[in-house]
Amino acid sequence: MKKLVIFDLDGTILNTISDITFNVNLTMYKFGHKRLSEKKIRSLVGYGAAKLIKDSIKDPISEEEFSKRLDFYNDLYTNSDSPKTVKFYGIDKLLTELKSRNIKIAILTNKPQPTTDEVYKRFLKDYDFDMVLGQSEKIKCKPSPEGAELILKTLGIDRVDALYVGDGEPDVLTAKNAGIDLVAALWGYRTKKILKATGATNFAKTPRDVLRFLG
What we know:
DNA polymerase, domain 1; 2 domains; alpha/beta; 43% helix; 6-stranded parallel β-sheet
C-alpha cells in the first residue's frame, strides 16, 4: 500500500483554466498585447507562471518589461479569489478516502507559492494536506525532481512508497526524474496521446480510478 500521494494542482485537483485565462488576458490587455483563447492558454499551462506569460506574449520585449508583466499577472491572480475555479468532480471523494486510509497527501505545483497558498486556503484547507509546495526561487520548477524529493524527505517517505498524480507533461517527467510511480489524470488538460508520448503508462479516467494504483 502506498503511503503518500503527491498531486499536481492545476488540471488535476482544481479546474483553474478559466481563472488563468482571465488573468492572462487581463495582463495582455493591460500591456497592449493580443489576447489568447482559453484553448490556447490550456495548451501552455503546466510549466509555471513565467513560461506561461512568456509564451503568451508574441511581441519582442526586454527582460525588464517582461518582469513587469509577470509581476502584474502574479499579483492579479494571487489576489483574485479565483471565482471561476472549481474542484474536479470526484476529487472530494478521492481525498477523503485517502485520508481515511491514513495515506499522506501533498501538492506539488509550478504555480507560484503565494498564489498556491491562496488557492489552497480557498478550496482545499479542509483536507489538511501534509505538504503544499509551489514554485519559488528555492526549488526548480517541474520537471525537475527537486520538489518531489523535498516532499519525500520532509514527510519521511521512500520513493517506492509514493504515487504521483498529474495531468501534464511536466508531471510525467517529474515522476520519472524522481523515480516515483505515476498515474496520469485523463480528466485534466492533456490528452492520453500526449501523456503517453511523454512516457506515461498508467492512466486514470476519473479520480476514483487512482485508488486502483495504491497497491
